[in-house]
Design a protein that fits this description.
The chain is α+β, with helices and mostly antiparallel strands. It has three domains: 262 residues, Rossmann fold; 93 residues, P-loop containing nucleotide triphosphate hydrolases (Rossmann fold, 3-Layer(aba) Sandwich); 134 residues, Peptide chain release factor 3, domain III (Alpha-Beta Plaits). The chain has 14 helices and 31 strands. The strands form six sheets. An eight-stranded antiparallel beta sheet has the order 18-17-23-14-15-22-19-20. Strands 27-24-26-25-29-30-28-31 form an eight-stranded antiparallel beta sheet. A seven-stranded mixed beta sheet has the order 2-3-1-4-5-11-6, with helices on both faces. A hairpin with a 6-residue loop joins strand 25 and strand 26. Helix 4 runs parallel beside helix 5. The longest helix has 17 residues.
């Protein structure tokens, strides 16, 4: 029975699809699991601890993540909170895996930015924020670790404005910090949430305002007077709370709390579910918006090989942008210009999966991939169009790669192909007679993950010979022999689509080639090359 437009609109309104971004060690995985606890999706948080005692975080499913205590790939987690269907895109915090985070952000409607109260805005946060700013994604800020000593809250707000260039509105305001932390005051609802230590649940009290005698009874006269002065200062000199600016990504609501004690997380989640945007129309490459109640359409933003090593499977993650998805439906694979049947569809919770019969705009579903999909592919039920492309980024580290065991050549080649198709590496071929293969990655730690996965998932150990190159630039069509360059600091290679790419050792060699070849066009990404 066909689903009505009214049903699609109703289900779309319930969806909240968001990513969590932060610098490493700000507590992102801990916050994710605190949200899952509130949604009833898990009963106990798998907090990442020291090497000897830690349990694997629920959202970190890959074996190397459990061993290293870091997230190296994005994870999809889903739960229901009240009447809202929440889709969390838990992204890697480590800067060496930021390309995976950048791609994942294209599937998010909003972002939760996590800040360490002691460290403030850190480098990786700045990079990820800039991507959000370019896409005008609404940003909601949670300042974490208030149960530890940290920086002055006013200084943290000033840093948001000075470093990130975004206005802020502290919805909750803390009383004390570390050993003197007593709780937070909610400026919009006038609730006071009292911190009772790590072992006890917080208590919430309704007040008539910051001057209410209840506040003084809870925290003492001195702390109450300071709270009153600080809230008054925020009311007079701070930014006004405007939902329209939040929706544009120009104003961020700020909350204070402690994810590890789950303090302030429920208040944040309650407000976030109400404030955050539901899925909105997505644009095609020609700028045309596709309404959420139009026929089914979505795009592939991530491919993950070997989520179940026993079956050597490959999953393409699809963001539903419009319409009603039904398992078994026939859609057009736009890039291949062919009809395909989506019979094997799943929803995920980390590594666990369940067959999904239907989905709506905002949902993330996994499709069995026999080798049909690439990142950025559009699938649509009606018509033929493509959504805006998923961005690619230039590698910054390069190494020649060969198989350590010639008897494992088939497994070696399959591993290289699949890991490059999922975006874990970029693969190039030298233009010399040997045609040696070169692996390019954004962060050096990706080499370690690449070696680990190639050996553990494909049984083929690689040998790497590192190159000193730092930049890759796609070249306008030209005979490489016509390029004036220094082979000592540059190399011409081909990517997997046979496009010419030049690798540069440093800024000087890049500028030198640009100056010596005035007609040569250099493109930082393959997407910019393709859309020239």
């Amino acid at each position: 029975m066909p689903v009505t437009e009214a049903t699609i609109q109703q289900e779309t309104t319930r969806r909240r699809t968001f990513a969590i971004i932060s610098h490493p060690d700000a507590g992102k995985t801990t916050l994710t699991e605190a949200l899952l606890l509130l949604g009833g999706a898990i009963r106990e948080a798998g907090v990442v601890k020291g090497k000897a005692t830690r349990r694997a975080a629920r959202s970190d499913w890959m074996e190397i993540e459990k061993q290293r205590g870091i997230s190296v790939t994005s994870t999809v987690l889903q739960f229901t909170y009240h009447d809202f269907h929440m889709n969390i895109l838990d992204t890697p915090g480590h800067e060496d895996f930021s390309d995976d985070t950048y791609r994942t952000l294209t599937a998010a409607d909003s972002v939760v930015m996590l800040i360490d109260a002691a460290k403030g805005v850190e480098p990786q946060t700045i990079k990820l924020f800039q991507v959000c700013r370019m896409r005008h994604i609404p940003i909601y800020t949670f300042i974490n670790k208030l149960d530890r000593e940290g920086r002055d809250p006013l200084d943290l707000l000033k840093e948001l404005e000075d470093v990130l260039g975004i206005q802020s509105y502290p919805v909750t305001w803390p009383v004390g910090m570390g050993g003197t932390f007593q709780g937070v005051y909610h400026r919009l609802t006038h609730e006071f949430e009292q911190f009772r230590g790590r072992q006890e649940k917080p208590a919430k009290f309704r007040t008539e305002g910051v001057e209410d005698a209840t506040v003084a009874k809870l925290i003492g006269d001195v702390a109450a007077e300071q709270l009153s002065e600080e809230v008054m200062l925020l009311d007079v000199a701070g930014d006004e709370f405007r939902r329209d600016l939040v929706a544009k990504g120009e104003l961020t609501p700020v909350y204070f709390g402690s994810a590890i004690t789950q303090f302030g997380v429920e208040t944040f989640l309650r407000d976030f579910a109400q404030m955050a945007p539901a899925p909105t129309p997505r644009k095609t490459v020609d700028g045309r918006p596709v309404d959420t109640d139009a026929p089914f359409a979505g795009f592939i933003f991530k491919i993950q090989a070997n989520m179940n090593p026993a079956h050597r499977d490959r999953v393409a993650f699809l963001r539903v942008c419009s319409g009603h998805f039904e398992r078994g439906m026939t859609v057009t694979h736009v890039r291949l210009d062919r009809k395909i049947n989506l019979t094997q569809s799943q929803m995920f919770f980390g590594q666990d999966r369940n067959t999904v019969e239907e989905a709506y705009p905002g949902d993330i579903i996994g499709l069995h991939d026999p080798g049909l999909f690439q990142i950025g592919d559009t699938l649509c039920e009606s018509g033929r169009f493509s959504f805006e492309p998923v961005p690619a980024f230039s590698p910054e580290h390069f190494a020649r790669v060969t198989s350590a065991d010639t008897l494992k050549h088939k497994q070696f080649q399959k591993g290289l192909q699949q890991l490059s198709e999922e975006g874990a590496i970029q693969l190039f071929r030298m233009t010399n007679r040997t045609g040696d293969l070169i692996v390019g990655v954004v962060g050096r730690l990706q080499f370690e993950v690449f070696e680990y996965r190639l050996k553990s998932e494909y049984g083929a150990a690689p040998q790497l010979s590192h190159f000193p190159y730092q930049y890759a630039r796609w070249l306008s069509p030209i005979d490489p022999r016509d390029i004036n360059y220094d082979p000592a600091s540059c190399m011409v290679v081909e990517d997997t689509a046979d496009r010419l790419v030049m690798l540069f050792a440093d800024d000087f060699s890049l500028r030198w080639v640009t100056e010596k070849n005035p007609g040569l066009r250099l493109y930082p990404t393959s997407y910019e090359y393709d859309t020239q």
